[in-house]
């Protein structure tokens, strides 16, 4: 490309169609292969992972027969309706001697299945509530330091490798639990599933590393489109795996399902280690000392040109003025204490000070409200996460295949709702970000009412349709926040939002688990009504944001008009040579 004529380059870029741009940007797609195997390890096995703790609790912990426990996962085989039975006064759900060997021809088989289902779900919910705080504390600690450490030393691969190690060990634990199905209790796999990945940062650390790597490996004019490609790729993955996850589980069983997932993570790990190259910081040169900027020259994609990575600098990043954002070239040769550098207390202090910093136009108040709204967005979502399939199994008599179809339907609706909200409501109809978030909050509140009282498949699907704008709240919150903070503070703001996720998991998941455990035999939809408590504050926050942002824009427009008018008046005064002393005629202003 002729770099001497930027106008010609821009014209050629504009002539490219969307798919031509995608084909041209194929050289950027070095992250996607690893992310495919990382995500699909769980997506392909979603039904196996959801069913495993329930069947384990039923068979091993409570002692029911394998036929009873397998029936709890698909009651439609025998057309069992558990609404006819009441277990509110039951305190011990362990199997009796007769129930330990019960079959479909045994007396009271339907009652036994329903009793086993309630007992298994109560036990699983109890473990979910206990493991959540433990699993949340480790990513919270890691995220407090990892972001600053990664930026300071330009280390991204480590933040991708560690979550993959955690996922691999997690599936290895599940595989061991599946091999010794009748000997190892449910708690081993359930705690391993949550805590082992958390010890290594989990998906929160992985996504932070991916976002950072994409940013520094992509030229600034191409970043929006590059992130768009990755976002579409990530949203399309469930369409590949979820429709067949139930079929794969029925065909492979637990052992081979977890073996496949373990293999996928090993492939992703090898890809990151040997294919993705670390982008090293630029070294100080004489030109740098003279104030000249370091550029990547004609390199279009340093992440793809792996044979030349050692010679390429990273994209420059703004400094916070403290001198701690990047490592000085002379210091890079000094022996550093990695543990001390990673757990630098100054990184935590910066996070604490960030939302409390005074900002113009009530920016500090808005930012605190937005952080609160984000907590109230991700908190209920994390709290409900473990109970969608359990509610469907218990209340709607679904099986794994039914739930995989519903999951695919919901993913499609979320993708369509996100496109409609961003392309139609925001771009075409010019709705403000606050109004888009308001629409998302209202529709989500409506959906929770439908979910709570759903007693049939139609009502449950209607709730899914109403919840199609669920992704827009987080988008609106981050977009409004980006307009409040300075450009050099954007990465810190997004890190704050990332920290909110494990913090919300620490708070919300135990509460939701306790509610479900206490209401599963009477009103399992109570958790969805509980989410309404947090939907209302979100609505209020977006209303406040709409009012404040609108006033700020009106004030800025008025200030701009006044400045323009003053400029015109000043020009007229300077050009009026007939007036001997124009400066004294202030009444004309």
From TrEMBL:
<feature type="compositionally biased region" description="Polar residues">
    <location>
        <begin position="567"/>
        <end position="589"/>
    </location>
</feature>
<feature type="transmembrane region" description="Helical">
    <location>
        <begin position="365"/>
        <end position="383"/>
    </location>
</feature>
<keyword id="KW-1133">Transmembrane helix</keyword>
<feature type="transmembrane region" description="Helical">
    <location>
        <begin position="34"/>
        <end position="54"/>
    </location>
</feature>
<protein>
    <recommendedName>
        <fullName>Major Facilitator Superfamily protein</fullName>
    </recommendedName>
</protein>
<keyword id="KW-0812">Transmembrane</keyword>
<feature type="transmembrane region" description="Helical">
    <location>
        <begin position="194"/>
        <end position="216"/>
    </location>
</feature>
<feature type="transmembrane region" description="Helical">
    <location>
        <begin position="228"/>
        <end position="252"/>
    </location>
</feature>
<dbReference type="GO" id="GO:0016020">
    <property type="term" value="C:membrane"/>
</dbReference>
<feature type="transmembrane region" description="Helical">
    <location>
        <begin position="403"/>
        <end position="425"/>
    </location>
</feature>
<keyword id="KW-0472">Membrane</keyword>
<feature type="transmembrane region" description="Helical">
    <location>
        <begin position="132"/>
        <end position="149"/>
    </location>
</feature>
<feature type="region of interest" description="Disordered">
    <location>
        <begin position="560"/>
        <end position="589"/>
    </location>
</feature>
<feature type="transmembrane region" description="Helical">
    <location>
        <begin position="493"/>
        <end position="513"/>
    </location>
</feature>
<feature type="transmembrane region" description="Helical">
    <location>
        <begin position="161"/>
        <end position="182"/>
    </location>
</feature>
<dbReference type="Pfam" id="PF07690">
    <property type="entry name" value="MFS_1"/>
</dbReference>
<dbReference type="GO" id="GO:0022857">
    <property type="term" value="F:transmembrane transporter activity"/>
</dbReference>
<feature type="transmembrane region" description="Helical">
    <location>
        <begin position="258"/>
        <end position="276"/>
    </location>
</feature>
<dbReference type="InterPro" id="IPR036259">
    <property type="entry name" value="MFS_trans_sf"/>
</dbReference>
<feature type="transmembrane region" description="Helical">
    <location>
        <begin position="525"/>
        <end position="549"/>
    </location>
</feature>
<dbReference type="InterPro" id="IPR011701">
    <property type="entry name" value="MFS"/>
</dbReference>
